[in-house]
Task: structure prediction
Amino acid sequence: MSSSQRSQWPVWLCWLAMVLDGFDLVVLGTVIPTLIKTGELGFDAVGATFAATISLVGVGLGALFIAPLSDKFGRRKLLIACVAGFSLFTIAVAFAPNVAVFAVFRLLAGLGLGACLPAALAYMNDYAPAGSAGKSTTRTMTGYHVGAVLTSSLAILIIPNWRLMFIIGGLAGIALLPFLWLKLPESLPEAARPQVSKEATPASGVVRTAEAAPKTGFRDLLRKPYPLVAVGIGIASFMGLLLVYGLNTWLPQIMAAAGYSVSTGLTLLLVLNVGAVVGLVLAGILADRHGTKKIVLLWFGLSAVLLAILSVKIQSELLLNAAVFVTGVFVFSSQVLVYAWVSQLFPANLRGTALGFAAGVGRLGAILGPAVTGTLVAAKIVYPAGFYVFASAGVLAVAALLLVPSRVREEKVTVPAGER
Result:
């Protein structure tokens, strides 16, 4: 099917699903300062850290154990079910009577949301024309940060009414459901069809030498040549999401600890995610032109440098916003480039599982980031120590990605008769 014949509905619907993920990315960061300040529902620094952590546990479990089902049952069904679950439990958060129930609802919402990102990215890479994995992935993920920008903007307008934040987010997901049901087709037939001939794909660096097994799972990642790839990608994804969630959950509080006002912290959260959108567009173009590995290494390296620079207090408001904007350009698109590379290194029938693995392991970093930063907040040493932790994560991501080969050659796999 030529690109001109492809409906634009899947492109926009997957993008809107990522907008919901972007809402979830920053919503806690926008409401935590108010909840800690008022003590509502029993919130304090410890309670906020627990709520942020348990939310990400749900997202991680969803990515690891629900997202791979898209390779077996189809991307469309999984996306619809996950958006529905996320939306209902997000609305429920607004009516939580205490911290514990708040956290449980966030856990359940995260189960659905965790599978959305890998399923949507797998769908878009099934759907995208050959040689455009970088742009396809990064452009879909602009929805992630557009959602973050919209949520940050909404928070500036309605905080301290934190309950309304969750109600609006949940209703947005419910509004998306009928469009997913009516307009999202199942994955393209040519993407779902197993590979039966020997072929080389220069764009991805993968040489296929045997028919792909119709049944897939995490066990396939343990077969040659994937273990080393999985380790490098897993570590980089861990560090990448540690940065994304650590910054988005605690940036307003870090800036407050540095002596900036709460409103300045919220504005910087907005600026950070505007930078992310610009970075995603730029990163996708450069990755397809120069190779994903080169660009993702450069992006993580620059992220580490810029985060270290933010540890120095900047007096000029203009320079501060500029520094945070440029940091956002590199930090958040670094992680998305990891997803783009995964989509290129793994065949279509294993793509959902591989992306689920990358996102799921990454969510462990997403859990650790807010937890570590929250601990630094509670100890009153988050500034500048938090930025040093984040810069170190960028350096470790670079080291891990150096382990991943630029090209992957698949081994011949014998499929047991019972699994054919």
